[in-house]
Structure formats: C-alpha cells, structure tokens
Amino acid sequence: MAPTESWRADASAPYFFLSYAHAPRNGSDGVDRDMWVHRLFLELCEHINEMTDTVGPPGFMDRRIRAGEVWSEELAHSLARCRVFVPLYSPRFFRSTWCGREWTVFSRRATRHLSGEPGTPSAVVPALWSPVASHQLPQEIGNVQYAHPEMGSRYHDYGLYGLIKLSSYRKDYQRAVLELARRIVNVGNNVLVEPGRRTPLETVPDAFAPPPDARTQKTLRITVAACAYDCLPEGRGRGYYGESPLDWNPFSPDSPAPLARVATEIAERLDYRPEVTEFPHRPGTADTVGDFDGPEVVLLDRWLLRDAEHREQLRRFDKCHRPATGLMVPWNDADPDSSEDVETELADEAAAALPRKLSQSRQASHRAVEGISDHESFGELLPYVMQWAAAQHLRNPPVRRSPDQGTPRFRLRADPDDDARTPVHRPPVEEEDRDDQL
C-alpha cells in the first residue's frame, strides 16, 4: 500500500477537526454552554458518514479542554492527522489564543492537489457560527472564503447559531449544514494534507495575534512557577502535577483544569492577550529585564521553594525591577501533603526569597499572596490582580535605554559577585490597599 493510501486508511484519523471558541463558564450551574456547537458537530458527522467511506471517525470536537487538560493526546493526534480543518468563525473565535494556535498547527501541514495539478490548495473550510464584522477578521486569513451563495442568504446574515436557534429558519439551517458537509467532503477528496507533528499548543504562535507594535499594550504574561514530575521535592506527591509546570492543578479534583488554562480563559474574558510561560523561562524566550516590560501575573507553587536552585532563581527574579508583576499563591488546605507546619515553613521560604514581589502584590490583594484555598477564590481574585498589574504597567512605563547603555540581565545562575554588581532596586512605597478584604 502506498504511503498516501496508508495514511488515508488510518482508522484513528478524523475526517475533519472542528475548531471553535468554547463558551465561558458562568458559575457552577452545570449548563453545557457549547451544546449548540455539539449539535452542529453531530449533524456534520452524520452527513460525513453518509457521504464517504472513511474508516476513521468522521470528526473531532474537543469537549475536554474546558473540563480537563490544556493539551490532550487525542487533540494533538487529531490536529496532526485530520484531512480538513473546520474553524467556526465568531467574534470570540478570533480573540481566542487557543483557536489561533490550532490554526497555526494545522496550517504548518503541507498540502497538494491529489490530481497532481500545480499550486498549494487549502484544506481549511470555515463556517460562520455568528456574524463577524470584516474589521474583526485577522489580515492573515482574510483571503479564506467562508460565505458561499449555496449556503443561503440567511446563513450569511445570522450564522449557524442564529439559524439553529430560530425554528422558523430550520430549513435554512439544514441546507447550510448539508452544504457545509459537502464542502468538507469535496476538500477531503481532492486535497492531500500530509500528516503533521504532535505539537503542544503552548509552544506555537497565535495565528490571530496582531503585529507586535499593536500588541504590546494588551499583552499580559502569565508565568507558572510550579513543580513538575522531574523536579518534585522529597515528600511531595505527584497528584497535582504533570510533565510541565503548566500542568499544575492544586485544586484537583474540584477544578479539573490546570491553573494555566483557567488563567488564560479569565485573561481572554478581560480582553487581554495572554502569553503563558513557565518559570524559569525556556531557552529562546524572554529572560531579561528588558525583553518583557508588560503586566505579568506569577502563579507560585510554594513547594518549588524546597529546591535550592529554584529558590535561588526566584530570589534573583525578586531583585528585578518589575513593578507590574503580581503574585498569586494558591494553597489547597485539603492537600494531604500540606500540613500546618509545612505551610508555615514554605510561607517563610517565600517571604525570604520574594520579599519585594510579595510586598508589591499586597497592593492588589492580601488574600492572593497569603494562600488561596480553593478554585472559586482563585477565579474571584485573579481578575483583581490582572487589572492591578495592568494599571501598574501604565503608572510605571518602562525606561527606554539608549543603544550604548545595554540592558541589565536577569541571570538564572548564581554568581558569587552578584551582590556586588547588581544595582539595588528599592521596592516602591506601598499604596494604601484598595480593599483589605481582597
């Protein structure tokens, strides 16, 4: 069997991948706010099954990211092996960092016409979920057609969501879904998309991000300073961790999503463009004082302070003059490893390693740095800390150095002469707390 035929017969590869912006959760009412998208997905799958002889699943729709992992193996495999990428256009879709990254991963896969004709065809078949103004479409994807006459004028006016919600437009909805399925099958039958690599979403750029000069003001960095499997201190269980610090979830099982994912969703709802990174920053990312001068929120796992190397890195980070950095310190009282004595010990370690950052973060919220005990409190406090960091960024604009001045580096390795050479930045005088209850 030829390689192409072998791939197309992959029983685990979905025919299409549905990319959509998950609806934000409003409390714990248990309502599935993506139920209408799921209904569309099931109807598309039914059509694909009838129109093709595919041996794999007709489609893939991620139903677990908002109730589970940041990045699942099933999602990674589906995005790397599907034949057709189906993005559901909506205003929220183009604000979603994760949707933009899914687009990036798929667009990196090579395509060609099965007929052998020249050119580079597209295997992206967009669908309009809710109307999007032309100025909301990122420039990079403006040439990808999503409105087609055969899908009907009401589809263009209302989108699939409007048609599915109005019983009087039921026939228009059925027509639009059938035509969408036909377009998916047409692309799947005529375009070969080579298998891609399973790439973690957090490592790829957002295809919808505006140019850097327009993005700086709205970017908010979320840094996760937490343990991972390869650096757990003695006496610490694995239950709240994963392969990466970004997998840290101190409130499991009450909150099944890692804190990095929760923080990303909250930042997007506040109209920030989150940049999620782990501490210390990976090679190739900003690791100097001058490379990132925007607002930042650090999610601190106190257990990290039991490691001498990380403790020293945090001490050096504390010396950096970053007035727009706020700390969040989750501490789950139900954690079986977190006795009162351990909490006191690690709180003292944090106070010794991060005195400046803890002091300035109390301006945003006392509760945020004293140990956030549950995921509801975390979700309540994080917006205050984000908004405080953004306000501090505006009050303390970065100093622009002349080219011959250079930039003082934030060095992660210990240097015996460091204290003699590093300028001392005095912490700013604390402002009166806005609300002692925060």
Automatic annotation (TrEMBL):
A Pfam family: TIR_2
Annotated region (Disordered), positions in chain: 394-438
Bias type Basic and acidic residues, positions: 412-422
GO biological process: signal transduction
Cross-referenced InterPro entries: FxsC_C, FxsC_N, TIR_dom, Toll_tir_struct_dom_sf
Gene3D superfamilies listed in its UniProt record: Toll/interleukin-1 receptor homology (TIR) domain
Name assigned to this protein: TIR domain-containing protein
Organism of derivation: Streptomyces lacrimifluminis
